[in-house]
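FYI - complex with acetoacetyl-coenzyme A, inputs then prediction.
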Amino acid sequence: MDQHEKHIALVTGATGGLGTAMCRRLHEDGYHVVANYRNEEKLKTWLEEQEKDGYTFDTAKADVCQFDSVGHMIQEIESNIGPIDVLINNAGITQDRPFHKMTFEQWDAVMQTNIYSVFNCTRHVIEGMRNRGYGRIINISSINGQKGQFGQANYSAAKSGMHGFTKTLAVEVASKGITVNTISPGYIATDMVMAVREDVREKIIAQIPAGRLGGTEEVAHLVSFLASKDASFITGANYAVNGGQHMY
Ligand code: CAA
């Protein structure tokens, strides 16, 4: 890596299972990792765990649902640490419920966190990336944005929307040295998946040809590759990491 490529990577929703694995992997790759978080309580324990394992991260607080709050966070990062070259839009939540019982609040919360956040974060980094002629944007979507899933009308809509966004932005910024890609993980061993009722989860695992949940590091490896210079001709793509559960 030349000096410019001692990149600064911002990972949103960093304290979750996938976010943690991505932060660690990018740290191992030599990035200066900035971990975005919302919950102060959770952060403290999380940072202690990371430091115990030898990982040091800068942290940046912002609610990714709030455009101005994200703008402030990004301004702070860029003036105190440096320009953001890699953005991983990873923050996400579920509020699963069959659609006929879904409330507006459940719909709205998932839209705000899973798709409005993508606009909020990307909009604030894109001008800098364009001016510098380099950038990597990786949107963490889901198998359930590709195939739909009982109880996830809100989540599937948002996750599917992420890839539509990826495709358009990829076209718009390809000539500026910026790549934009989507990763669609299947069922990965995270708290989010473990929160699914056990009997339901068992049935889902039975549908995965690999016969198991994915590991968080299996998604992080791909993040690492797509963030690298080697992936400069890959843009607008959607990578499935799902153990064969869904092919398209
Ligand atoms: N297809 C068709 N019908 C289904 C069904 C399915 N997959 N699942 C349930 N049903 C039916 C049931 O048979 C039942 O029918 P009857 O009322 O006629 O008996 C009815 O729907 C209600 O089923 P439940 O008892 O399961 O309903 P519930 O309200 O208790 O639970 C739910 C609903 C919480 C959405 C539950 O079904 C569920 O957890 N589903 C899994 C959702 C899921 O996969 N979430 C992923 C979270 S992790 C993640 O999102 C990460 C990622 O990206 C992969």
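Residues 94, 96-98, 142-144, 149-152, 155, 186-187, 192-193, 196-197, 200, 204 surround acetoacetyl-coenzyme A (CB under 6 Å). The chain has a mean pLDDT of 96.
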